[in-house]
Automatic annotation (TrEMBL):
Cell membrane in keyword set: yes
Gene of this entry: yusV
Annotated GO MF terms: ATP binding; ATP hydrolysis activity
Protein's name according to its UniProt entry: Siderophore transport system ATP-binding protein YusV
One Gene Ontology cellular component: plasma membrane
Location of this chain's protein in the cell: Cell membrane
Domain called ABC transporter: residue spans: 4-240
Primary residence: membrane
Keyword Plastid attributed: no
Keyword set, alphabetical order: ATP-binding, Cell membrane, Ion transport, Iron, Iron transport, Membrane, Nucleotide-binding, Transport
One GO BP: iron ion transport
Superkingdom classification of source: Bacteria
InterPro entries reported for this sequence: AAA+_ATPase (IPR003593), ABC_transporter-like_ATP-bd (IPR003439), ABC_transporter-like_CS (IPR017871), P-loop_NTPase (IPR027417), Siderophore_ABC-ATPase (IPR051535)
Length: 281
C-alpha cells in the first residue's frame, strides 16, 4: 500500500503564500478529511499532494520517492485525483469516461486488454452505474455524474484516492450516497481516501483522521473526537458552537450558535414573560 507525506511544504500562487512550511503524513488505509475555513489552502494542499501544483519549497513523498521526480504515468498508477467540479466533453458516455481511468496503463506496446475491460466493468458495478454506462455523462443527475467520475478514478486501480469536495452542489441524499460509496471502498478494499469536505459533521462521521488547516499550516490533526472541539471551531472557523456526541454514530456533532428558532431562547423568553405577568398580578 502506498504512503503519502509532505515535508516542509510551502505552496502559493505568484508572490502569495497559501501554505507555509507544512508537514503532514496521510495514514495508510484510512479516510482522511481536510477541513478549514474558505481560502485556508485545503484545495491547494490537495492539489500539491496530487502533483497538480509545484511547491515553492519542500517536497511531497509518494511511496518513498519525491513525487516531482516521478513519471506522470507512474504517479497515476499509484494515486487517483478527482478535482472539484470536473467537466466532460459533450456527448461522452459513462463508459467512455470510465475508460479514461485506464490511460496510465496504455502505450504503443500495450493496447486495450481483458484486464482493462475487467477494471472498467468492476468500477461501473461498484458505483452502481452498469445500467447507465451508455448514457451521456451530461444527461445524468448531479449524484450520478459524480459517481461516474469516481468510477473513473476506481478504474485506475490505485491504493490512494484524493477528492476535492466530492459532495459540492449535491443534495443531502446524494451527499450521503457518495460518502457511503467512498466509505465502502475504504472498508472493503482498504483504499486510502483523502478528501476536502466543508460539512464538519459529515467529516466527523466518515473520517478516521481529520486535518484542520489554519493560517497556512496544520492547526490540529488526529481522530475526530480528539480534534473537533468548541475551541477548534472558534479558532479555525471563528464560530461559536456546542459540540455534542452524535446520537447515532458517537462522533462529534457541531451545533452552531446564531439566529433562528432556538427552543432554549424561546423557553427563556416565555419564562421571563410569565414571571413579569406574575409580578404585575
Amino acid at each position: 500500500m502506498e504512503s503519502l507525506l509532505a515535508n516542509n511544504l510551502t505552496l502559493g500562487y505568484g508572490d502569495q503564500v497559501i501554505i507555509d512550511s507544512l508537514d503532514i503524513q496521510i495514514p495508510k488505509g484510512k479516510v482522511t478529511v481536510l477541513i478549514g475555513g474558505n481560502g485556508c489552502g485545503k484545495s491547494t494542499l490537495l492539489r500539491s499532494l496530487a502533483r497538480l501544483l509545484k511547491p515553492k519549497s519542500g517536497e511531497v513523498i509518494l511511496d518513498s520517492a519525491d513525487i516531482s521526480k516521478m513519471r506522470t504515468k507512474d504517479v497515476a498508477k499509484k494515486m487517483a485525483i478527482l478535482p472539484q467540479s470536473p467537466t466532460t466533453p459533450e456527448g461522452l458516455t459513462v463508459y467512455q469516461l470510465v475508460k479514461q481511468g485506464r490511460y496510465p496503463y496504455q502505450s504503443w506496446a500495450k493496447r486495450w486488454s481483458v484486464e482493462d475491460e475487467e477494471a472498467v466493468t468492476k468500477a461501473l458495478h461498484d458505483t452502481n452505474l452498469t445500467e447507465l454506462k451508455d448514457r451521456s455523462v451530461d444527461s445524468l443527475s448531479g449524484g450520478q455524474r459524480q459517481r461516474a467520475w469516481i468510477a473513473m478514478t476506481l478504474a485506475q486501480n490505485t491504493d490512494l484516492i484524493l477528492l476535492d469536495e466530492p459532495t459540492t452542489y449535491l443534495d443531502m441524499t446524494h451527499q450521503i450516497d457518495i460518502l457511503d460509496l467512498l466509505f465502502d471502498l475504504n472498508q472493503d478494499n482498504g483504499r486510502t481516501v483523502v478528501m476536502v469536505l466543508h460539512d464538519i459533521n459529515l467529516a466527523c462521521r466518515y473520517a478516521d483522521h481529520i486535518v484542520a488547516v489554519k493560517d497556512k499550516e496544520v492547526y490540529a490533526q488526529g481522530k475526530p473526537e480528539e480534534v473537533v472541539t468548541c475551541d477548534l471551531m472558534q479558532h479555525v472557523f471563528e464560530m461559536n458552537c456546542d459540540v455534542r456526541q452524535d446520537p447515532l454514530f458517537g462522533t462529534p456533532m457541531c451545533i452552531p450558535h446564531g439566529k433562528g428558532r432556538c427552543l432554549i431562547k424561546q423557553a427563556q423568553a416565555e419564562a421571563q414573560s410569565q414571571q413579569q405577568t406574575q409580578t404585575v398580578s
